[in-house]
Amino acid sequence: MNLIKGQIYELLNQEDIVIVKILSKEVIFSVLMLELKSLENLKIGASVELLFKEHELCFSTSKTLLSVENSFLAKIKKIKKGELLYQVFFDFKGDELSSIITKEKALELELCENQE
């Protein structure tokens, strides 16, 4: 499980849809929420944690426009190679994050350590 700590930067809402903007290490992340009840304790400046699974972290080897809402620069620290899957570990401004992808896709991307 990946974890990024941050503070609520902005709250945007329209009817039952809320977008929470979270600032972490000078990067703004967006979280879409569909339940207003879960917002009762959320206030601008409050500390929060973003949790997401390894298979939910997509990455690209070149800077390109993506339809993915949250994107940021990170460097590959290490690659754990398996028969079917590769686990890629990233350094995001001092925090370690990881992604799990197929071996086939990892070989296609020609991943290497210290790559941004």
From TrEMBL:
Kindly give the Gene3D superfamilies that the UniProt entry links to this protein.
2.40.50.100
Write the protein's name: Molybdenum-pterin-binding protein
Tell me the domain of life: Bacteria
